[in-house]
Amino acid sequence: METPNNLKITFTCTRGDLIYIKYYQRKYKSVLRKAKKRENNRYVIKSTDRTRAIWRLSNREIGKAPENEEKLELRIGNKFISNPTEIKIKLTHTS
Questions:
Q1: Taking the alpha carbons of 32, 33, 39, 42 in that order, is the dihedral positive or negative?
Q2: Side-chain-side CA neighbours of residue 85 (13 Å)
Q3: b/e for 32-52, b at 16 or more Cβ within 10 A?
Q4: Per-position pLDDT tens, the chain of length 95
Q5: What angle do CA 31, 33, 38 make, to 5 degrees?
Q6: Which end of the chain is more exposed for a tag (fewer CB within 10 A), N or C?
Q7: Against a cut of 0.85, is the pTM above it?
């Protein structure tokens, strides 16, 4: 059942409830920040090209879209090829 757009539902919270909510919002944001830092560090450490990994993280943070992170697949018969170099070779040899 849908509610009409002009119907507003309001909740009343006590001051104590609001303090409780704010406290756990701050905790949640803090945990998310730490988890994000930990994951970014793991990503950079596991990367073979650390400078490139740092730039990718930076670009992802500022919202710049990655240039080519789309997964490319070519199906030839029953075989799927996802390596861009192999796809190029297959396409140039079939022409």
A1: negative
A2: 0
A3: eeeeeeeebeeebeeeeeeee
A4: 566 667 777 778 889 999 999 999 999 999 999 999 999 999 999 999 999 999 989 988 888 766 655 677 888 888 888 887 888 887 887 65
A5: 95
A6: N
A7: no
